[in-house]
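Q: What does the assembled structure look like for these inputs?
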Amino acid sequence: MNQNHVYDMIIVGGGPGGYTAALYAARAGLDTVILEKLSAGGQMALTNKIDNYPGFEDGIDGFTLAENMQKQAERFGAKTEYAEVTRMDLNASPKVVETSEGQFLGRTLVLATGANPRELGVAKEAELVGRGVAYCAACDGMFYRGKTVVVVGGGNSAAADALLLSRIAKKVIMVHRRDTLRATKIYHEPLMKAENVELRWNSTVEELIHGERLTGVRLRNSVTGEESVVECDGVFVSVGRKPATELVQGQLELDRSGYVIAGESTATNIGGVYAVGDVRTKVLRQVVTAVADGAMAVHAAEEYLAESGQ
Amino acid sequence: MAAIHINQEQFHQLVNENKPLLVDYWAPWCGYCRRIGPAYEKIAEEYGESLVVAKVNIDEEPQLAEEEKIEVIPALVLYRNGQAVDSVVAPESKAMIDRFIQSALEK
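A:
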């Protein structure tokens, strides 16, 4: 590979936002490369069925949707490199991205690195994903029809997950480390009313009990120190998300939670650098909002390239 | 060269040959296995000279998976001279698979 080649656009991250940017950029005639560390799709690649992305009346699995987005962008000439980014210099001209596959230079850069669910940090958690440990009630809840599940967390998304699961599962046990929910009031009443939802306050998950699959959790009450075992078929971890912005800290302006500050235009504080999808400050993080960002970023980048005469 | 799909019999033959053998143990129902797929094909292209790059579907080869004590997938195992040298479970990136192969080959 020619390490001095300057792309019109480097896209970091191959999720729906990244590949939509790639599609629009390639169709606009921009010389475009996507740097993806593993395979297309990001978080949605692990979603068994996406029913809220329009155009697929029977739903579509996230991995296939991602592959389709990749192929569509590549049909117009976008290029994918399976590269892990190790360092970025966004203020340089051209912008510099160092990766496991060498250095890439770009006139513009789209940051589409997404976000990841925060983990519980309990032993065996990663190994039990898909075998009782889940991070998305809307994605995987249907597998727990008539079963007993634990929801860990006390924020809005945990409360929403618990409510959603209460309509599917036989029993929902919500485990929260404090003695009150952080969730907004609209969730309180329905949660308290739901007959199959039980709340365990001041409690943390100490251990995931499992054979082939998860069979239960061991909880610890932080006030009394008492431990108890709860038998369950699934644990939904809803303790927040963390944006993948470690590599741009100190360069891009981030909000308190680490998301890149950018409005609907996706423009960041650095000229020619755009943030799309879950990594950007926004109200609703969905596939449809990520793809919208991808299109916006290319529109903004074209203006930037024209204005800066590049 | 694309990664080759092998069965138990082929495994026992390949594992004793001179060229080290890399096996990706996977199953069709495993979402993360699919995610590794494209990067693994790239690995097969890049390491084709120095390694036999293979895949074993553990649903079709349960006996082999049991013999090799595969309890979690996706699992990549590197074999040399009939012995498992090292393994990695659910690698996060192609770069991580590269590092795994390089360090396993040095062992």
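The mean pLDDT of chain B is 93.
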